[in-house]
Structures are given as C-alpha cells and as structure tokens.
Write a structure and sequence with these properties.
single chain, 219 residues, Rossmann fold, eight-stranded mixed β-sheet, six-stranded parallel β-sheet, 24 strands, 31% strand, binds coenzyme A
C-alpha cells in the first residue's frame, strides 16, 4: 500500500482520485490517498473531498515523513504545478507517477518523474517526456516527440511524431500539433491547429493557429 498526499484540490485533483480508484479496483497496486494539500488549504482543513480530508497548505508537508508518504502533483496549470512541486521538494517531498491502466506507453518511450496520465493515452516509440508531465484522457503522442518538464496536455490533444515541446507548455483540449517546435511557456488554445513553430511564451489559437502576445501568464 502506497500512502500519498495530493498536491491540489480542484477539479483535476478529483479526476486523479478517480484514476487512483480505477488503479485500486483493477490492478494489484494499491494507492491510499491520505489527504489534499494546496495553497489556501489551511482554511479548508478538515473538509472532505470524496471522503478524503483537506490537510492544509504546503506548510503541512514540513511534518510529513517522506519515507512513508509520496506526493502526487495533481495541479493542472504548469505555472502553479512547478511552484508547488519546487516548494514541496525543498521540504524533502518525494513524488510518484499515477498512470491509468488503459495508457499505452511504448517500451521505447521515456518519461520523467511525477507524471499523471489519464485514460486511453498513447505514447509512441522513442518519444521522450520530461518531469511532471500531465496528460488528460485520449492524448496521442507520436514517435520521437521530445517534451519538456511541467507540460500539460488536455483531453484529445494530438502531437505529431518528431514534435519538440519546451518546458511549462499548456495545450488546450483537442489541439493538434503538426511536426514543429513549441517554445517554453507557450499556451496553445483549445482546438488549435499548430502548423509552424510557436515562439516561447506566446499564445497560439485558431485553425491554422495565429500567435498572440500574453499580458499575463495564467497557465
Ligand atoms: C486560448 C485561450 C487560452 C484564450 O484565452 P484568452 O485570450 O484569455 O481568451 P478570451 O476568452 O479572452 O477570448 C479572446 C478572444 O479569443 C477567442 N478565443 C478564445 N479561445 C479560443 C480558441 N481556443 N480558439 C480560437 N479563438 C479563441 C474568443 O472567442 C475571443 O474572441 P473575440 O475577441 O473575437 O471575442 C483559451 O480560450 C483556451 O482555449 N484555453 C484552453 C481551455 C482548455 O482546453 N481547458 C481544458 C479544460 S479540460
């Protein structure tokens, strides 16, 4: 039995809880979530999310024995996920991945630590994925794609073989990326068709996508 604390307490964290329930029901692995920790969580401490308590904010982790407990980074937006993971690591936090049993990960693909992959995702041979990757359901990643750290792909995203994606990139649902490069910190809108390189920290939306400056980094 692996005890875990979830970082995050929003809709995505509840989706991860659902995946853990599937893992516990259909595989021999057993994961026991003991609580949620998130920014502002101290005011909700004691509340239950599907029967599991909110423990507090990140400071709660100072008293956790990380020989006994692992963390799961269940926060959708890359900017928030990176911030919380880096702070948790300073407190000794150790992370584990949560991979839905329906995911097909090629034996020739590589993935870093702390990933969350939801149902029916496919990763093809020789794809290389960085740390703290999140894919929602039905994501497809082609052969030889290279994907950075803290990337989030929303449901039904399709990434062509050989695409290069930087760090902290957020890709909205149903976006399709033809083989190209996406720079660090870019935000790709829902349903975008990406046909050429996206510069770092730009927003791309539309079909085919056009690029826009971002006033503020929301994702
Ligand atoms: C692309 C995105 C980041 C744009 O954010 P934004 O600039 O703050 O968008 P706004 O809501 O201010 O809309 C600005 C304009 O862009 C348009 N727009 C918004 N999202 C768009 C998209 N995905 N594709 C094309 N146009 C879009 C709006 O219609 C609006 O057009 P208008 O100026 O002609 O009225 C956002 O809409 C998006 O697609 N997010 C991804 C959501 C997602 O996948 N969530 C996952 C849930 S599981």
């Amino acid at each position: 039995m692996k005890k875990i604390i979830m970082l995050g307490g929003g809709g995505f964290a509840r989706e991860v809880l659902d995946t853990i329930d599937v893992i516990n029901t259909h595989t021999e692995d057993s994961i026991a979530p003991i609580g949620f920790v998130y920014d502002g969580g101290s005011k909700d401490a004691g509340n239950l999310i599907h029967g599991i308590p909110v423990l507090g904010d990140l400071s709660y982790l100072q008293n956790v024995d990380f020989n006994e407990v692992r963390l799961v980074a269940a926060i959708g937006r890359p900017v928030w996920r990176r911030k919380m993971v880096e702070e948790a690591k300073k407190m000794g936090g150790k992370f584990m991945s949560v991979i839905h049993p329906t995911v097909t990960l090629s034996k020739w693909a590589k993935m870093g630590e702390g990933a969350i992959m939801q149902r029916f995702c496919i990763v093809m041979p020789d794809a290389v994925i960085g740390d703290f990757f999140i894919s929602n359901g039905f994501v497809g990643i082609g052969h030889d794609a290279v994907i950075g750290d803290y990337v989030h792909m929303n449901p039904h995203v399709v990434i062509s073989g050989g695409t290069e994606i930087g760090n902290d990139v957020f890709i909205g649902l149903r976006a399709t990326v033809l083989t190209c490069r996406i720079g660090d910190g870019a935000v790709i809108g829902a349903c975008a068709l990406i046909t050429k390189d996206v510069p770092p920290n730009m927003m791309a939306k539309g079909m085919p996508a056009k690029f826009y400056e971002m006033d503020e980094k929301k994702y």
